[in-house]
Amino acid sequence: MSQQPVRYDRQGAVGVVTVDSPPVNALSQAVRQGLWDKVTEGFNDAAVTSLVIVGAGRTFIAGADIAEFLTGGMGEPDLNDVNDLIESGPKPVIAAIHGTALGGGLEVALSCHYRVAVPKAQVGLPEVKLGILPGGGGTQRLSRLVGAKTAIDLITTGVFLPASKGLALGILDHVGEGTDPLAVAISFAATLPAGPHKRTRDREENLVADKGSPVFEEARASLAKFARGQFAPQRCVDAVEAAFTLPFDAGLKRERELFFQCMAHDQAKALIHVFFAERAISKIPDVPPSVTPRKIAQVAVLGSGTMGGGIAMNFVNAGIPVRLLDLDQAALDRGIGVIAKNYAGTVAKGKLAQADMDKRLSLITPTTDYADLADADLIVEAVFEDADVKAKVFRRLDEVAKPGAILASNTSTLDLDAIAAHTKRPADVIGMHFFSPANVMKLLEVVRGKDTAPDVIATAMAVGKQIGKVSVLVGNCDGFVGNRMVQYYATEAQRLVIEGASVEQVDKAALEFGLAMGPFAMGDLAGLDVMGFIRARRVAAGLIYGTPLSDRIDPARKGQKNGRGWYRYEPGNRTPLPDPEITAVIDAYRAEKGVMPRAIGNEEIAKRLIYTLVNEGAKILEEGMALRAGDIDIVYIYGYGFPAWRGGPMKFAELAGLDNVLADITRYHADAVKAGDADGAYWEPAPLLARLVADGKKGF
Ligand code: 3H9
């Protein structure tokens, strides 16, 4: 960081206040103090008639310093005082925006008398994504500029607006040319009229127009549905409403009260954790940024089925050419057809130009000949999930791939080291585990084998980022991180049903918790045939996955793909419908086992589902299969529809209190032992969890 986070200098009659606090000019205490001092200096500088506030480096101010929230120390001066100083000053102040003006950064800009930007700039109030709301006057000033409905929309979604949209909405006063915000602001300053400059707080027109508007109640009702269970979005509406019911200063006070209510809530702690966890995933202790990734100019994908096709799409979407190999020409034609159909659907929705679709398809070269893979820098294998098939493929790849090419397997269940052992270059072998549908799901588990070279890891992580994935490095264990945890979660769902819950109740409890989908609906999506296959393999190896109840389901019920699974489905409709046939199977199973079904509350269901994840997550962490608890949280949020506002399973456990979680897990384990139910053996408390609690630790 430079010596002074904020500096002052002069350009003609314009005083320039530059915020220079890398990486994103966040409003730390030092920056707030610097702004206070330098804006004051500018106001006192008789040689200037106006001031510009601009950011050095890649951006304007990207918001409050989120790291400061964690330490709880938001010292003086308060952001509202800085904003008041700017807004009430004797000279016009222009915010000169490039990069992003976000959160507190936009609040500073809204306190300026004018806002100008370069075309590529973006503005937004994304606090809601951190479980909080704008606490530096944003709800009060933005409402005055854009009216109630737009303010609610922007603040409850936290969307980033391009400069053109900001201009159209009246958030910005001018968008200039080029990339230099200071140049834009200085020429704008020359056009300013003489006389007093209106303060945003005094703008009354929208307040009058929207007073008593039904939009507040409408927004509350809509958020109750679409942001169910979430605390901050409703408080955002309350804060915007205060702009229309209270004088400005009282509105600011109300906003701040609501801000602190959000800050004190677990959901803010969860979402702030997710913000940093998401940025931590790329930090790998033994693969520092000094390790240079290999160059990836040509990719090959093996297997043109659903997975291979989706994987290929990721690369061509990012402009990287792909050779798509399948040994069966008919399968290859079918695969290309599916890809084309996927793109055509996006074009039909108006989300992709026909020319872009054509360009992407042209980047895919189908082939049935391994020799065509010789120039590939990265080869991703997505063939049938069978150890013998993979062995054959990797032996063949070892023959054709050029030296230095990275050989990646998309396996989700097999041992990566065993796969690597079929080549003479295990250092170049890595796992790239995509999640289905591979062109949509954001998560990528990058699996490191025992011999995988650091620059191969760096390359897989970098390429993952390039194709828009959230890449998490995981170790080579059965199921890696995500699936290893989910198999016990799915098993517990069945145990709950055996004990007395219905399939629908279990899924409902999961949805109420905030998960995108319940475990049974998820099973139907994944395919009960696939799950049966994995269960057979695991049971044969003495491992747990599912219960004997699942063996009683008619094998013809494959899930969504044939309209019959744990639920039934109407043709062309993905809505799960209860099926009496399944209820009968469950009743018969309970009767056979002499189980007297008991009423189970939704809270117990949710706890038992989530704590399977926590307990296995702790084992994964202890084994070093994930680098950080936060990495596991990111896997669950991006791969399994876990609600970010719960923080991910590991953060959820911390917020619930590790001691409470351990007590419950210990009880579930004792219950399973007492019932002689070996399928509940995964409840054996993770030693790491027990140790942390014994040591009085609050976090993983
Ligand atoms: C707020 O403003 C509250 C106020 O209303 C009220 C106050 C009273 N603070 O994302 P990147 C770090 S709430 C601290 O990889 P990109 C980040 O951790 C705030 N640190 O870059 C990372 O560090 P590292 C409202 C921050 O180019 C580095 O900067 N604002 C902050 O992909 C680079 O970040 C927001 O919610 C911050 N505010 O994206 C905006 N922002 O390198 C949050 C970033 O050590 N930020 N860092 O891992 C973003 O959305 C993106 O970071 C941004 C850049 C778009 C700015």
The unique ligands bound to this protein are: (S)-3-Hydroxyhexanoyl-CoA
Q: Given the structure, what is the number of helices?
A: 30
Mean pLDDT: 96
Report Rg.
28 Å
Q: Which residue ranges are poorly predicted, with pLDDT under 50 across at least 5 consecutive positions?
A: none
Number of strands: 17
The major β-sheet equals:
8 strands, mixed
Briefly note the structural class of the backbone: alpha/beta
Q: Helix fraction?
A: 40-55%
What is the rounded distance between the termini?
A: 31 Å
> Proportion of β residues?
5-15%
Shape assignment? globular
Strand order of the largest sheet: 12-11-10-13-14-15-16-17
Description:
- The chain is α/β, with parallel strands linked by helices and 700 residues long.
- It contains 30 helices and 17 strands.
- An eight-stranded mixed beta sheet has the order 12-11-10-13-14-15-16-17, with helices on both faces.
- It starts with 5 loop residues before the first strand and ends in a 6-residue tail after the last helix.
- 48% of the residues are buried.
- The model has no long low-confidence stretch (mean pLDDT 96).
- It binds (S)-3-Hydroxyhexanoyl-CoA (3H9).
- The site of (S)-3-Hydroxyhexanoyl-CoA has 23 residues, from helix 2, strand 5 and helix 4.
- (S)-3-Hydroxyhexanoyl-CoA (3H9) is lined by residues 23-24, 26, 62-67, 79, 100, 102-104, 107, 126-127, 130, 134-136, 138, 279.
